[in-house]
Amino acid sequence: SSSALTPEQKSLLDNIAGSIDYGNLNFDSAKNNALQNITIKKGGDNGLDKAVGDISTLQEILKDNNLSVVSQNGVILQISSKTINQKLGSLGVAYFGSLYSNLSFKADPERMRLIVNGGGGYYELTDNGDNYSYKESTKDDYEKFSLIASLEGDSDAHKLVTTSFVLSEIPVGYARTFYLKYGNLNLGVSGKLMNGISTQHIIAINKGTDFEKELKDLASLDNAISSNNFGIDLGVLYELDLPKYRYLTVGLVAKNLNSPTFKSTFYDITIKPQYRMGLGYNSKFLKLAFDADLVPNDMIAFSNIKQQSQMIGGGVGFDIRAFDLRFGAMKDLKQDTGLILTAGINLLGFLDIALQSSTKVTDVDGIPIPKYLNLRVGGSFSF
Q1: Phi, psi dihedral angles at 23 (to 5 degrees)
Q2: Helix/strand/coil (H, E, C) string of 260-293?
């Protein structure tokens, strides 16, 4: 019967009151019946549910995130002809230049709880899945575990970590084809000189952070470190030569077998070995492919904690005169991204555009954002 509340406000309170778990409702009589703990079931009020859900989503994003930009470029000179290949094999030399740039928020998982200073005391809001609770906390917990407290003063509990890594490679490769009764066996080995130039920045996130100054420092290469190493790659490809399987191939590649390491500002950068196998069917107009990482790969994304990837997938391609179309799907066994759908187009054998997007999304203000999104644009030509 209160005239101080609007009908909408009364409806909101009715919804919340009807969702309270009264078995988990506690008052402290020693503090004038101050509310000590309350648990509210989800579904009572959509607005409140969304607010708590958004907070939980933000906490998860801060724990697991990474933005990467990669540019890979190269030129290859191959010395080979049919006669030379049959008797001696093929020799090649190349130059590859790659840029890996990463940015992520590296959060202290121990200081992510939503504990607030309510003036007369400390309280914590927790999302329990099918309900959320609001309970009394302590000053000690606030100072040790609160996300809000960790952003005050000069704390470095949460930070932005950036890595820029320029990798130059000069590989010298040798390959030989062995002509067998039912197919061709191709073996290749490459030794490469490698140079890495890297710089890393750590920016503490708190109220005192001077972001203008920090962003200017990011553009500077004054602290870049250069170091040299070498790498070894191996590859094998078997081409079946049977009437019904003439276009079927199977291959295996092993890259950076010696784990070349490069010095950097804070953490040395090690390129771990990569092992990948694949099957292919290549006719004049149709291509089918399946490939998989045989072991997990450490991602060149040093901004976050233990990021690994292990892809498995396949697809189909159509060669239609001036352009090629590709469609496929893949799954990262080490990342919670769901099924990843892929599509690509190649124009005139030169310009190539590919898009990869996960079916698993994160809702941000009602907009579904894929948990994995990868856009690749490239080109190549040979003569």
Answers
A1: -75, -20
A2: CEECCCCCCEECCCEEEEEEEEECCCEEEEEEEE
Give me the mean pLDDT over the 66-81 stretch. 83
What single DSSP character describes residue 143? H
42, 68, 227, 326, 376 from 354: Cα distances, Å: 41, 16, 33, 9, 5
- Paired tokens of 61: 């994003």
Highest mean pLDDT among 122-126, 131-135, 286-290: 286-290
CA dist., res. 225 & res. 97, Å (int): 17
The answer to whether 335 and 309 are in contact (CB under 8 A) is yes
Beta bridge partners of 233: 190
Shortest CA distance to 293 belongs to which of 277, 280, 308, 307? 277
pLDDT digits (tens, 9 = 90+) for 21-31: 777 777 776 66
SS3 35: strand
Most confidently modeled range among 46-55, 295-304, 354-363 = 354-363
Closest Cα partner for 195 from 240, 165, 174, 222? 165
